[in-house]
Amino acid sequence: MELGSILVVLVVIFGALRVAKWILKKVNWWLYEAPLGEKQYLLPPGDLGWPFVGNMWSFLKAFKSSDPDSFMRTFINKYGHTGIYRALMFGNPSVFVTTPEACRRVLTDDDAFKPGWPISTVKLVGRKSFIGISYEEHKRLRRLTSAPVNGHEALSAYIPYIEENVIAALEKWTTMGQFEFLTQMRKLTFRIIMYIFLSSESELVMESLEKYYTTLNYGVRAMAINLPGFSYYEAFKARKRLVAIFQSIVNDRRKLKMDGAIHSKKKDMMDSLLDVEDDNGRKLTDEEIIDVMLMYLNAGHESSGHITTWATIFLQEHPEFLQKAKEEQERIVKKRPPTQKGLSLKEVREMEYLSKVIDETLRLVTFSLTVFREAKTDFSINGYTIPKGWKVLVWFRTVHLDPEIYPYPSQFDPSRWDNYTPKAGTFLPFGAGSRLCPGNDLAKLEISIFLHYFLLDYKLERLNPECPRRFLPHTRPTDNCLARIKKVSSIA
Predict the structure, then answer these.
(1) One MF term in GO for this entry (predicted)?
(2) 103 marked among binding-site residues
(3) pTM flag (> 0.85)
(4) Residues near 273 by Cβ (< 8 Å), separated by ≥ 6?
(5) Which of 52, 237, 267, 489 is the most exposed place for a label (fewest CB within 10 A)?
């Protein structure tokens, strides 16, 4: 073939590729934007990306790198600091909101927004869990379950059990040599949440549940590819096993109730869910009970385990903050009446500096980087329109790491909370509005009790302090904090 003919063929191929690329880039516009008519010109700036995949590849690429914030930074660099951007995420046309005021409005306006979690996530967590039910159902279930989780009486009752397990775990860890601190911390928080919700189960059941929850969480923020070899496929299998275990527990509890044996033990959350009925006398179905339990047990140990781990790491990395926190705990013990054994809820609520340590850890780690909502109607915000049916991703991570809100945001500095009350929308570790995390007080109680005993008598020695981090499904050291726990001298 002559050179001229080869050039012509190459030009044709190159031209065909450019046309194909243009068509592919237009597919999502034809699917999602063109049907909006004139409203498409009021959409936030952004790009829906490639067909079906949308912006997911760039999201996963960024969050599997050492710089997860590069994902949102590409929007800011390309479209400016508008605080609101459009994209295609988890198979849906979506809008990111990244400013405090926009986040507050979306989270607190229940008339304009409803939960908008991806269908794939709802299938994993449960369509009858808090992320899948309507506002009315959520309000009812939250009212029924809040007192046994966050009430003053309940929190006070949980303290002795949490203390007992924290003390035993710390002592055991000093004999283990090197171990994965995060892994053991998650096992500890899982044991605690199991006691609160199910009183007690066998070690075998607890180990199975904890293992399946780990697999489930890896699939929650993965692409919803339900084929062997993909995280979502394994997560879906894990959910089926979890549901089977919970169904067995529900069946056993119902039999105990019928036999009248339920009154011989402490009443727990499972008992409450079996007993509760609405104003019309309707009781919860097995599916409702199982999905609520599955959600609570997951959220109740993952967040507490990770945040406690990071608070411990940060304190050990900053001796000046560790010493200040330690001195506060020593003062609490020294002024305790001689007849008192263990912590009281009053003492926990007097841990002012430790509370700042926990808040700073929650801000810096941002355990949940986003929550999902869906516009129930066309909604105007920041001069743009969010169309009805589009998803809204409230991007907590950008708010918590905004240098205009938190100077030097990547630094761990509990003193930034001295005489500081965050403005609405600037601190969202547990969300906001009617769907604020129902277990926030319990989580902070667990973290506080662990840090109390750790600060008094122990220290953490990491084996790989410079090891990189992973950011999906949650921020963690790649070695799960391989470390040793050593005992130090107690207070006089």
Answers:
(1) ent-kaurenoic acid monooxygenase activity
(2) no
(3) yes
(4) 144, 145, 284, 288, 289, 292, 293
(5) 489
